Amino acid sequence: MASEDAMSKTTGESAVSTIVNLAEEAKLASEGVKAPSHALLSICKSLIAGGVAGGVSRSAVAPLERLKILLQVQNPHSIKYNGTIQGLKYIWRTEGIRGMFKGNGTNCARIVPNSAVKFFSYEQASNGILWLHRRQSGNEEAQLTPLLRLGAGACAGIIAMSATYPMDMVRGRLTVQTENSPRQYRGIFHALSTVFREEGPRALYRGWLPSVIGVIPYVGLNFAVYESLKDWLIQTKPFGLAENSELSVTTRLACGAAAGTVGQTVAYPLDVIRRRMQMVGWKDASSVLTADGKSKAPLEYTGMVDAFRKTVRHEGFGALYKGLVPNSVKVVPSIAIAFVTYEVVKDVLGVEMRISD
């Protein structure tokens, strides 16, 4: 009997052990199935949040965005736009409400995927850099420094810029053209196909180098300043701005505004050069028409350095900052709205991780 009891006990324990093992294996298998699905859903939500943030922020400042480009590329011998207020009034008087938002559809078609890729790339790059930082330092509690955030932001900016650059190129041309321009692009895809056919595939990436060089300090500083400023406010809690380790929407908007101001001031000359290089080869651009409507031969640039040299020689150093005022007025709310919209949409969609985490 004792032997039978022992065998029965052993058999029972074996059965229980087998059932437990099977249950654990089933649980692991279930988690294995759910994990990729959950990860994919989280990625989609993050991309949606970034896209919405880009579309909302850019549409809010579309008139200023168009004026900035017009100021950057206008012919110095035929000045039409003398400043922010005068420029906006001139566009309103000559082109109406549609003129204020000309090119915004193309702009949003570019900025939505650009913003989605940028925010998502920043999250992934910051996670990867933080992992390497903790391994190298041997400190599992180490956090991202402002310099590391700058690196993560630079990586995100380069990836997003490269992925959507042809859209930015044709957006610039659609924004500049007027009813008096002999060449009329009918839309995004018509512009893309026309440039590709008449100027070659390389034309779609004309000005890419100064764009990439400019995006490193621009996007890098945007993320670094925004995240570092938020961390500082949460840790020090000056003037009671941070309550329970949370910042109000107004305070986060202020952080975004500061980040945008710093980033665009440093990178702005490269943005001017990029825009001018994009116009090379487009002899029907409105910026190369004189006041009487006659065509004036535009400057040709052999590269980024040549564009810098010719711009400064023919128009002075100040030409590198043409359109800075409307761009500053545009960037302050645009970057602020983008950061805050991104975090709010992620909260609404139920994404656990914010860019600060």
TrEMBL record:
<dbReference type="Pfam" id="PF00153">
    <property type="entry name" value="Mito_carr"/>
</dbReference>
<keyword id="KW-1133">Transmembrane helix</keyword>
<dbReference type="InterPro" id="IPR023395">
    <property type="entry name" value="MCP_dom_sf"/>
</dbReference>
<keyword id="KW-0813">Transport</keyword>
<comment type="similarity">
    <text>Belongs to the mitochondrial carrier (TC 2.A.29) family.</text>
</comment>
<keyword id="KW-0472">Membrane</keyword>
<dbReference type="InterPro" id="IPR002067">
    <property type="entry name" value="MCP"/>
</dbReference>
<dbReference type="InterPro" id="IPR018108">
    <property type="entry name" value="MCP_transmembrane"/>
</dbReference>
<keyword id="KW-0812">Transmembrane</keyword>
<feature type="repeat" description="Solcar">
    <location>
        <begin position="41"/>
        <end position="128"/>
    </location>
</feature>
<protein>
    <recommendedName>
        <fullName>Mitochondrial carrier protein</fullName>
    </recommendedName>
</protein>
<keyword id="KW-0677">Repeat</keyword>
<feature type="repeat" description="Solcar">
    <location>
        <begin position="144"/>
        <end position="232"/>
    </location>
</feature>
<feature type="repeat" description="Solcar">
    <location>
        <begin position="247"/>
        <end position="348"/>
    </location>
</feature>
<keyword id="KW-0999">Mitochondrion inner membrane</keyword>
<dbReference type="GO" id="GO:0005743">
    <property type="term" value="C:mitochondrial inner membrane"/>
</dbReference>
<keyword id="KW-0496">Mitochondrion</keyword>
<dbReference type="GO" id="GO:0055085">
    <property type="term" value="P:transmembrane transport"/>
</dbReference>
